[in-house]
From TrEMBL:
Residues involved in Fe cation binding: H115, H119, D313
UniProt-listed Gene3D superfamilies: 3.30.420.40
EC class: transferase
The protein's role, per its UniProt record: Required for the formation of a threonylcarbamoyl group on adenosine at position 37 (t(6)A37) in tRNAs that read codons beginning with adenine. Is involved in the transfer of the threonylcarbamoyl moiety of threonylcarbamoyl-AMP (TC-AMP) to the N6 group of A37, together with TsaE and TsaB. TsaD likely plays a direct catalytic role in this reaction.
Superkingdom classification of source: Bacteria
Record keywords: Acyltransferase, Cytoplasm, Iron, Metal-binding, Transferase, tRNA processing
Biological process, per Gene Ontology: tRNA threonylcarbamoyladenosine modification
Native source organism of the sequence: Paragemmobacter kunshanensis
Protein name (record): tRNA N6-adenosine threonylcarbamoyltransferase
Lineage: Bacteria, Pseudomonadati, Pseudomonadota, Alphaproteobacteria, Rhodobacterales
Gene it is expressed from: tsaD
Entry similarity comment: Belongs to the KAE1 / TsaD family.
Residue ranges of the TM segments: none
Localization, UniProt: Cytoplasm
Domain Gcp-like stretches: 27-320
GO CC terms: cytoplasm
Amino acid sequence: LTFLGIESSCDDSAAAIVRSRPGQAPEVLSSVVQGQTALHAAFGGVVPEIAARAHAEKLDDCVEKALDLAGLRLDDVDGVAVTAGPGLIGGVLSGVMLARGVAIGAGKPLIGVNHLAGHALTPRLTHGLAFPYLMLLVSGGHCQFLIAEGVDRFHRLGGTIDDAPGEAFDKTAKLLGLPQPGGPSVEAEAALGDEGRFVFPRPLLDRPGCDLSFSGLKTALLRARDALVAEKGGITVQDRRDLCAGFQAAVAAVLAEKTGRALLSYLALSPAEPALAVAGGVAANRAIRAVLETVSSKVDVRFIAPPLPLCTDNAAMIAWAGIERFRAGLGDEADLVARPRWPLDSQAAPMIGSGK
Ligand code: ATP
Ligand code: FE
């Protein structure tokens, strides 16, 4: 099976071709991602109207490039998969309308994919993981623990009750005058800092379960910075490094503790091939990866981190999820609808026709 995938739920327009043959590892034949960072930079955040228009303009081009790079024509693909939600409605609609046009025009099946399911199924594309496996989705917009039980079955163990960790990294960078995206710049500073100098709160550790919170961390960091400024009129290069190191250590500690708990719930299912996989941009962070690897190995669970371009938003994960759904008989949805909100564990097949 060869599928075209289309993704436009946030600020990346993407198209990709994935091929899967029985008995062989699936292949990403092409994966094109066009970001919009420059377009939104002046506004300090993603502007929905600008995102929607940019998707409408760029997606055609992405699809053409993805086909070219794969050396295929539309006729050669067996189906079209598109992100049908959750996300910014204008962007999702641009993708769904294009995908519908392409699928109907070429007489191919059309599969609607939940963006989060795309992330959650990625370790099966890259490592052929067997169900059930534990998934930590940790990005700029999300933070949740999921047990992936089947192509269409995800059980949410817990997640952030406020900010996502990536967002916390981005806000930290902003507070300290470091470039965006904040993750890589804070990580680089943290590597040169002393994580013991500022000890930031580890929220919700006293509460049972796998829920997390990151918004308090930002407040604590702001207070520490302001205290330094009040004391000596500004912060030095070393202060900044130490603040970053303390912040990152707090995020890593919270993720490690909650991942340990999620692993215990998961292991209660007696999985045949126990594995923890990560997705999302924050999975790029080496300190965070290292603690996740440690907590998994303590309980003999394999730790999987897919290559970064497949961890962040991309269309290969959507094409792959389309293949998985198609194989599972989760069909052809010529009139699928876009859904701005679509929690993963209420994952029924996308609704057909009706507005929600
Ligand atoms: P989503 O995909 O959930 O809608 P998103 O598009 O913001 O959200 P991604 O593209 O997966 O998420 O990841 C981007 C986020 O990852 C940013 O917040 C960025 O700061 C963070 N990030 C990237 N690299 C690192 C790093 N090395 N350490 C920590 N965070 C990082
Ligand atoms: Fe995403």
